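Re: the request from the purification team.
They wanted to know what the chain is likely to look like in 3D before they choose a buffer screen. I agreed to run a prediction and write the result into the notebook, where they can find it.
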Amino acid sequence: MFFNVLAAFAEFEVDLLKMRTRELLKMRTREGMTVARSWASSRPAGPSSRHVSRPSWCACTAPASTPSLS
């Protein structure tokens, strides 16, 4: 009987973890879609829009630094 109680608590904890993960994923997706929509609306339309510089929050705009081998 003791192991049944432990199994019930473990199953409850797994369900809580799944629920928290799903909620966080939904929240991050909503935030990401909001940022993507605002970024896309500020870009000009047309094929030349691929060459527009990325916004400042984008990590890929940081200059590449090479470590010195001294």
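For the purification team: The chain is about 55% helix and 0% strand.
Please add any questions underneath this entry.
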